[in-house]
Amino acid sequence: GYCSAVFHLKCSGVSESLLAAVDGNRQVFWMCRSCTTMLLDMRHRKSVHSAFMSGQESLVDTHSQSVAEMKSELTELKAEIRSNFASLKNSNSLTPTSSRRPGDNPDLRKKLFHDKLEPKKQSQPLLQGTGNPVSPSFSSMLVAAPTPKFWLYMTRISRTVTVDQVTKLAVERLGVQDVEVTRLVAKGKDVNTMSFISFKIGMDTSLKEKALATSTWPQGLIFREFEDRSTEIFWAPIATASANQTASGATGTTTTPESTPPNLPAAGDGSENPNLGVESMEE
Length: 283
Hints:
Strands 2-3-1-4 form a 4-stranded antiparallel beta sheet, with helices on one face. It is built from 8 helices and 4 strands, in the order αααααβαββαβα. It has helices at 9-12, 16-24, 33-40, 42-94, 106-112, 163-174, 208-211, 241-244; strands spanning 149-157, 180-184, 197-204, 222-225. It is an alpha+beta fold. Among the domains are: 9-79, no CATH class; 149-244, Alpha-Beta Plaits (2-Layer Sandwich). Residues 246-262, 269-275 and 277-283 have low confidence and may be disordered. The radius of gyration is 55 Å and the shape is elongated. This is C2H2-type domain-containing protein. Residues 89-110, 243-283 are annotated as: Disordered. It comes from Culex pipiens pipiens (Northern house mosquito).
């Protein structure tokens, strides 16, 4: 009731059956004697009603005021948006437009559909002078043409053998000092990961027959005439191309052969050179 007092169930004088009915119906409630007397007073009832209506009116007024404020803000926002759209439209109308269509470039079109092909520039041939030199010192400015050489390919050599050791062997066996030895190991390749290494030996062409004689080289040394295949193109499967590539010639690159090359003669009965180590045929 109005007093908001708390009463014990036994002190209220309400039976359990009646209390169950009160709990089951929200419209049914129980009031103490003082609150009941106050409610039966007509003046008090009018006062309660007036207070309730006053609260309702205050709530309605607050709601109406909030709605009016929201409408006012929406009206201002609409006016601002319209103003912005109008200014944007006016600025677009003042921007000069091009008469060309997008992507229409006459210069590019001319290049794409030009039928006239420019002639390919041919390199001029080199000419060699035949007249007398201007001065005797002029001849010192010329580089002599390279002397043709015979190249010998040696393989299955221990990876510990050096260029100096092979050079010393070639000088002793061929009986000449003018030899050029190149170790055929790819640039950046670690020789410790290789089973063996190869060399090529350049010499005068007159020594070809002696260089290819098996009696010239120590027993067990494998060799043949060097073939420059740097300009040839060989087919190989993609998966094994890196293992079968061959590079040789003056660049000093080589490949590690998978097996003993065919037609490689073994050296004859010459004595072993203590400075040259030869690895066994098994990898």
